Amino acid sequence: ADAERTQPTLTRSTCCYCGVGCGVLIESEGDRITGVRGDPSHPANFGRLCTKGLTLAQTAQSLTGRALYPEMRLSRESPRQRTDWDSALDTAAERFADIVRQHGPDAVAFYVSGQLLTEDYYVFNKLAKGVIGTNNIDTNSRLCMSSSVTAYKQALGADGPPTCYEDLELADCVLFAGSNMAYAHPVLFRRLEDAKARRPATRWIVIDPRRTDTAAMADLHLQITPGSDVALFNGMLHHLIWEGLTAPAYIAAHTDGFAALKQVVRDYTPRLAAEMCGILEADLIQAAEWFGRSPASLSLYCMGLNQSAHGTDKNLALINLHLACGQIGRPGAGPFSLTGQPNAMGGREVGGMATMLAAHRDIDNAGHRAEVAHFWGVPALSGRPGTPAVAMFDALRRGEIKAIWIACTNPAHSMPDLNSVREALGKAEFVVLQEAFADTDTAAYADVLLPATTWGEKSGTVTNSERRISRVREAVPAPGETRPDWWIACEVARRLEVLLRPAQLSRFGYATPEAIFAEHRALTEGRDLDIGGLSYAMLERAGPQQWPLPAGAAQGQARRYTDGVFAHADGLARFKPTAFQPLAEPTNARYPFHLLTGRLRDQWHGMSRTGRLPQLFEHAPEPSLSMHPLDAERRGFKAGDLLKVSSKRGQLVLPLQLSDELSSGSVFAAMHWNGRFLGSGGINETSLATVDRQSFQPELKHAAVRVEAADLP
Ligand code: SF4
């Protein structure tokens, strides 16, 4: 029998979870994925995987909850029925076209996802902006990294981190800001741990209101009051300026705006800043000294800075520190925003957001619009601003947007203020859901459900946190009647072209994702993210590559701005003075607790994949609300008690877990648990929809809440 056993087929691909972008080797036999292991040749992980990546084979095998056939319903009152692809696509396209004809192109919207591959994203963006003529396409990446995008553009002149993963091993001081990297980017964290073991003098500073597993490993944990990051960074900069630890020659040669920054930072004495942050002045000074005096300082930051009504300011205040000390554009130094999703970066590259155009072009730049319109062969692109995620669902609720196409994401779980989002989806005239899973919180609202292929079944590319583009490859055939996301988007685009632009030749005749990639590549030429020299053939031959990689380059560029020339027209980086601003929703007598949200080690987003494997619950078996033991004792709560957590917007019931990782006055809940586990949408029942005015990213990390014993029947 052994002799008869066939060898498994090996397919090189990329993990579908976080922005680390680990390379994987998929073993398959027939239509089954039988194993997944780390790809030793991939430069992100060199063969390592975390628990989520290591269990990909098991989670991929299950068809539980999968959407396998197109479904449609004739009225809101009737259940969806199985249908065929042509009927579903014709209906979806006709309803969208009708609404566009009656109410104009901005009456429809697309809400897509950082889980999509770059090729999927590209086609959706072209469909919305090039065929329908609306900039109403936004993504769940808006909830994750748009503050970083905005800050990079303002300070450095272009989106994208200046750093690379190798910098983790070369930094002498690592400053983690709002990042529980041990859980959210585990394989990178292992790289950092190895580097620290080799170079124990490397200093780790962790800024986090919780003593996370990342903070527990730090040389210095600054357990700041929630939302006080800008005061901290300004206080650190004050110390650096007045102690002569900045880099005057670098500031003079490569930056603009230092005098104005100095004026603002003057007020943030270390004593005052430390008081605002609820930490010791000596600790703030220690952090500034390590950051300023280290030969190479690297900051790693994530949702703790981004998911805030002042997320852009928090990013900018941190970048100010790097520019002032010349800690950028050198090995081991720079501000490094870590992306949450596997392809949030790819979405930025193709311009798949309401606030940007393809290849880092701007909607409000008439020249950029003309370039893209010419390239796509359409008369013009709309200059009207698109509607970013939170405003999109608000407009849907008010009836200004009448139809929405949701692809590969679960807004009825992940958006803030879920009552309002559910109301929006309930009021929408028409909802299309393109999804691999049929049992998400959002699926209940779909008039048309289009079953999509998912990881292991589809091909394309993704870009990880260090700007590295990797191939994702199909290892097994698509189950049921599922289809790739790019194919679905092209099919509806072709129908809408006929309905809305009949004189126009179809621009969606791609036979493969490779053809889409080639078109995307051509649009990047001459731009800061130029990948004119990159092709599927090169990725096959030379492995994953970082952008930029212009025509003729032998490989991608590891670091940016190494020559001190930034992407602003004059080549200078900009200091952006930022002032501390209070939380969007301060605590008060009625809502006295800071509710902090975050991730669990072994779960991913809304658990549509990880939530189906028992072994991934061993680390955190059930939802819970963490509270400091002193706060619990004062209120007479015991571990395991069911508590009602309420904000001004909504509530949910969770069992109590005692934790001294939090300061008194704060409680914590993980963001993953959803309707399948709770019977409600999860912690976003309580979160608020206030957004950053520059990046439009909502304050998902914090809300003021009340906690009381649950009064259960
Ligand atoms: Fe996947 Fe991220 Fe884990 Fe790597 S670190 S295996 S990309 S979840």
From TrEMBL:
Keywords from the UniProt entry: 4Fe-4S, Iron, Iron-sulfur, Metal-binding, Molybdenum, Nitrate assimilation, Oxidoreductase
A Gene Ontology BP annotation from the UniProt entry: cellular respiration
Cofactor: Mo-bis(molybdopterin guanine dinucleotide); [4Fe-4S] cluster
4Fe-4S Mo/W bis-MGD-type domain mapped to chain residues: 8-64
Residues annotated as transmembrane: none
Domain of life assignment: Bacteria
Molecular function via GO: 4 iron, 4 sulfur cluster binding; metal ion binding; molybdopterin cofactor binding; oxidoreductase activity
One Gene Ontology cellular component annotation held by this UniProt entry: membrane
Family recorded in the similarity comment: Belongs to the prokaryotic molybdopterin-containing oxidoreductase family. NasA/NapA/NarB subfamily.
This protein's name: Molybdopterin-dependent oxidoreductase
Organism for this UniProt entry: Chitinimonas arctica
Upper taxonomic lineage: Bacteria, Pseudomonadati, Pseudomonadota, Betaproteobacteria, Neisseriales
